[in-house]
Amino acid sequence: MASDAKPGNSIVETIKTVFWALVIAGLFRTLLFQPFWIPSGSMKDTLLIGDFLFVNKMAYGYSYASCPSIRFAGLDIDAKDICGFLDGDNTRILGSEPERGDIIVFRQPTDGTDFIKRVIGLPGDRIQMKDGVLHINDVAVKLEPAPDFVEEFSRQGPMGIRPRCENGVVGEGGACIKSRQIETLPNGRSHSIINIGDQRADHTGVFTVPEGHYFFMGDNRDNSTDSRFPAAVGGVGYVPYENLIGRANRVIFSSAGSSMLAFWTWRSDRFFTRLD
């Protein structure tokens, strides 16, 4: 028996299905979780290039930064154009404040790029680096030695970034070595950091974090453009509360290659890894 459905009706139903799927996906991305692919090595060895995770947007409530910017097929719509009604005086709806040590995706204050770093300084804190050691409110954090971080010297991720090494010039495929330590913050949270030697950012003045702002640093201390550098020169400076997007809790997937489709480069040992 021939179907009584008309071709026109099928097309309309398909359009409706696609439309509502996009609406649901948009709400999911805007209100709950945002996917994030790690593009650089600034958070090694906690996060590696090619790690994929979902950011929990509910962790700190909602601001204009909770809405995604749209840059696709000639469109260039900023998040403030979509969620401008949430943009007001550095505030958030249903907001809760981050804890020191949280790994957060946030919006860079000047150009709107999404960054991922660790919260080191809270409002009112004094932050300083002295000879490569982090000081918070004039007290050095606790450091313990840990085994070296070793990775292959080769191109990593879609951008083909080669790692920086502490053991000098390394040939392609050689062992790239960095010193590693366990750093414990004043609230007792510990994480590993890696270094490649004495750098300018290992010696800074005192940064006093303004009210309503946060100070971020990468775990790969000598290869992170973070709050130690002002936004005017490509750093992030002090990050306003409203620029926080969400907290990263767990790596879902990881690939060492230039494409996630290259299954032979998948790091299965990192799937569903909890972040400290």
Overview of the molecule:
The chain has helices spanning 7-32, 79-82; strands at 33-37, 51-56, 70-72, 75-77, 103-107, 114-121, 126-130, 133-136, 139-140, 142-152, 175-184, 190-195, 207-208, 213-217, 239-240, 244-254, 273-274. It has two helices and 17 strands. Strands 1, 2, 5, 6, 14, 15, 16 and 17 form an eight-stranded antiparallel sheet that branches. It has a four-stranded antiparallel sheet with strand order 9-8-7-13, with no helix packed on it. The protein has a three-stranded antiparallel sheet with strand order 10-11-12, with no helix packed on it. 27% of the residues are buried. It has a single domain, classed as Umud Fragment, subunit A. By secondary structure, the protein is mainly beta. It is globular and about 70 Å long. Strand 3 (70-72) and strand 4 (75-77) form a beta hairpin. Helix content is 11%, strand content 33%. It comes from Roseovarius marisflavi. InterPro entries: LexA/Signal_pep-like_sf, Pept_S26A_signal_pept_1, Pept_S26A_signal_pept_1_CS, Pept_S26A_signal_pept_1_Lys-AS, Peptidase_S26. It is found in: Membrane. GO terms for molecular function: serine-type endopeptidase activity; signal peptidase activity. The active site is at residues 42, 117.
